[in-house]
């Protein structure tokens, strides 16, 4: 069974890189005259399916691929 700190499969790494590029081009950088605010629903954050990609029968649908950006940057 994979772990969150394992190296993701190449297709997941490719999607993460595409997302990083898109975020860098669409979200404004922090300036002295702006503030960046992010929110999320943390109610079910503790639940995770230990896979890189969810299958139709999996619950919850949150998988390692969704959390990799955070863990790779911290």
UniProtKB/TrEMBL annotation:
<protein>
    <recommendedName>
        <fullName>Endonuclease/Exonuclease/phosphatase family protein</fullName>
    </recommendedName>
</protein>
